[in-house]
Amino acid sequence: MTDAAELTRLTKELLAAHPPASTDRLDFLKARFDAGLAWVHYPEGLGGLGAPRTLQAVVDAELAAAGAPDNDPRRIGIGLGMAAPTILGFGTEEQKRKFLRPLWVGEEVWCQLFSEPGAGSDLAALGTRAVRSDGGDWIVNGQKVWTSSAHLARWAILIARTDPDVPKHKGITYFLCDMTDPGVEVRPLRQITGEAEFNEVFLTDVRIPDAHRLGEVGDGWRVAQTTLNNERVAIGGMRIPREGGMIGPVAEAWRERPELRTHDLHQRLLKLWVEAEVARLTGERTRQQLVAGQPGPEGAGLKLSFARLNQEISGLEVELLGEEGLLYEDWTMRRPELVDFVGRDAGYRYLRAKGNSIEGGTSEVLLNIVAERVLGLPSEPRTDKDVAWKDLAR
User: Fold this and answer.
1) How far, in Å, CA of 83 to CA of 179, rounded?
2) Are 250 and 316 in contact (CB under 8 A)?
């Protein structure tokens, strides 16, 4: 079993062989992956050493102290937090070796082709079709929406309907789609912030080889649950320091600008500060529990808390700043590489936080997941669960 001392030794050997100050950033990241220090809990040869997940912090601390580059995790968050654990869980050995290294070092950005105009909250109702050709490839036609980073992505995780004659959850298959293939069209969706970090994606006779199918035919919903559970932890359970995230700018403004303070705002800030700290510590506890395996439905609670807190904190910040809080720096249409809550102004945070209760699963759907799968409450009546997808009203 690899222990902390062994990981420290291996990290120092990496730094000695590839000094960060004189080594190309990408070359260093590739060497780190090959040394098994990318994600230490992954298997050997796939960026890890089969070590306990908690020991990743040992490696990260050594590398940070040495000024080593990271892989810009915010830019490639969908690949790291959603695609990678799904590929690890369901991919063939060939798929794991092909995709995981360029994904982790950031050579290839990933996006998520799940939601559709008629299948957002009810994702299993999706209508994008994948039909097997005579040559064995899959021909995909349909439309996806709310796709973060599609304008930057080389690869996408995609779910499509392969059997319309069975109930909606059973006729879905999971694919890895090359975003540069003919028939993939990405169009920007301009948001309330003025930017277009989201996109809609049109798929017209896109040919996906069967070698890029993840899991068994018709088992895509089970595979997608791994993606979705990891997504909710990735969104709601990010590792941040105390007063990190949205609460940080509000607390800083409170300390530095006493002329803005009122008793009411003080009471609200205290309440939200405590709740933000509780959420942060709960996220840390959840990450430690991941040592035992993949995340479960508990991640839905983290994501629920994340959305509510971001919206309440950003609203408090706008009120605290008064007229200044109504200002907005730039409405220019841009297609950013990442979402930067902390590095922007209060107006941006307020507007962008409105999407937190939609993206990664709506709060209403997540409340059902918590009720049914965490608390064990009775399920809501579902009249369509045994009806073939083709017979559903649309």
Assistant:
1) 14
2) yes
pLDDT in tens, 66-84: 999 999 998 999 999 999 9
Task: State how far the Cα of 312 lies from the Cα of 129, in Å rounded to an integer.
Answer: 40
Residue type, 184: V
Partners of 132 in beta bridges: 138
pLDDT at 295: 62
Task: Give the pLDDT confidence of 147-197 residue by residue, as tens digits.
Answer: 999 999 999 999 999 999 999 999 999 999 999 999 999 999 999 999 999
First to last CA, the chain: 54
Q: Where are the beta strands (DSSP E) in 87-134?
A: 110-113, 129-132
231 is catalytic: yes
Calpha distance 301→363 (Å, rounded) = 9
For the chain, give percent helix, strand, coil, nearest 5: 45, 15, 40
Cα(205)–Cα(202) distance, rounded to whole angstroms?
10
CA nearest to 268, candidates 242, 247, 240: 247
72: left (phi over 0), alpha (psi -120 to 50) or beta: left
State pTM to two decimals. Answer: 0.89
Residue located via tokens 């009203």: 393
Q: Pick the catalytic residue: 231, 252, 312, 337?
A: 231
- CA-to-CA distance for 146 and 362, rounded, in angstroms? 13
Distance (Å, rounded) from C-alpha 15 to C-alpha 18?
5
Which phi-psi region, left, alpha or beta, contains residue 327 (left: φ > 0; alpha: ψ -120 to 50)? beta
Phi, psi (degrees; rounded to nearest 5) at 372: -85, -40
Q: Which two three-digit tokens encode residue 196?
A: 């277009």
Single-letter code of the amino acid located at 378: P
